[in-house]
């Protein structure tokens, strides 16, 4: 569904008189090149990654739902399921369910870091053919490599952190590098609480990006209860109100 929304919006803007900041577009192309380079480095390394990672797994968690959002329940974006209506993160199980009753298996290391996500697809059996995402931790970044059940890399993500907060989320669908796109979220904080989000949907093959900006309101429990904003077009910021408080 997210791809359908993106493609529809992109086509509308392509046929409009939207003004593109070429310097910003070139910066986005540079990010795509970086993520594609990571894809190329690891595209033949799935057996090695499996062997390396499985030695580090000490704990598992399982969830149902969330298939339409990156990584399901543990999606790194704090707002993606809110910005794109209809997306759900799914729910965690308290104990391991029977095969066929869960959507994701999450694997953690001894530091309680998520290092592998196995996603169920129509070809999955209890012992093979999961979609797999491998996560690698640096001092300030987490790289995610998403493999299809066929063994090829479909996407690469990168999350950047500062002061224990995520400040940037980047993801490129790059199974075909010449058609690679880019989705970015950038976050600002006040008093260590999320206060603003900017998003960019970039399609280099048609020299186009969509920019959105949202102000964030959070309740006393740290949950997002309101987003105010929308698309910035030719310097004009659309401001709609989205309420999430139940």
What is the tally of beta strands?
Answer: 14
Average the pLDDT over all residues and give the rounded result. 92
Distance between the termini: 25 Å
Instruction: Give the overall form.
Output: globular
Describe the oligomeric state of these chains in a short phrase: single chain
SS content category: alpha+beta
Largest sheet: 14 strands, antiparallel
Q: Strand fraction band?
A: 35-45%
Please count the helical segments.
4
Compressed to H and E, one letter per element, the order equals: HHHEHEEEEEEEEEEEEE
User: Residue share in helices?
Assistant: 10-25%
Q: Rg to the nearest angstrom?
A: 18 Å
* Uncertain spans: 1-6
Describe the structure.
This protein is 19% helix and 40% strand. It contains four helices and 14 strands. The chain has helices at 2-14, 22-42, 46-54, 80-83, and strands at 59-64, 91-92, 104-108, 114-119, 131-137, 141-147, 153-162, 165-173, 182-190, 193-203, 208-218, 224-233, 236-237, 240-243. Strands 1, 2, 3, 4, 5, 6, 7, 8, 9, 10, 11, 12, 13 and 14 form a 14-stranded antiparallel sheet that branches. A hairpin with a 3-residue loop joins β5 and β6. The two termini are 25 Å apart. The model is unreliable at 1-6 (pLDDT under 50).
């Amino acid at each position: 569904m997210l791809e359908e929304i993106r493609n529809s919006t992109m086509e509308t803007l392509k046929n409009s008189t939207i003004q593109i900041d070429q310097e910003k577009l070139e910066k986005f192309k540079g990010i795509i090149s970086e993520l594609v380079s990571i894809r190329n480095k690891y595209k033949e390394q799935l057996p090695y990654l499996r062997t390396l990672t499985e030695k580090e797994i000490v704990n598992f968690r399982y969830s149902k739902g969330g298939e339409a959002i990156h990584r399901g329940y543990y999606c790194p974006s704090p707002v993606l399921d809110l910005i794109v209506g209809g997306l759900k993160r799914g729910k965690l199980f308290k104990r391991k369910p029977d095969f066929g009753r869960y959507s994701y298996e999450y694997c953690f290391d001894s530091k309680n870091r998520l290092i592998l996500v196995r996603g169920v697809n129509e070809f999955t059996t209890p012992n093979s053919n999961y979609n797999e995402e491998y996560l690698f931790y640096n001092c300030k970044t987490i790289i995610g490599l998403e493999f299809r059940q066929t063994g090829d890399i479909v996407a690469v993500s990168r999350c950047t952190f500062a002061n224990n907060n995520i400040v940037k989320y980047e993801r490129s669908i790059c199974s075909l590098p010449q058609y690679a796109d880019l989705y970015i979220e950038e976050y600002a904080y006040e008093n260590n609480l999320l206060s603003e989000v900017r998003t960019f949907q970039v399609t280099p093959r048609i020299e186009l990006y969509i920019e959105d900006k949202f102000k964030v309101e959070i309740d006393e429990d740290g949950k997002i209860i309101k987003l105010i904003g929308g698309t910035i077009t030719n310097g004009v910021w659309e401001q709609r109100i989205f309420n999430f408080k139940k």
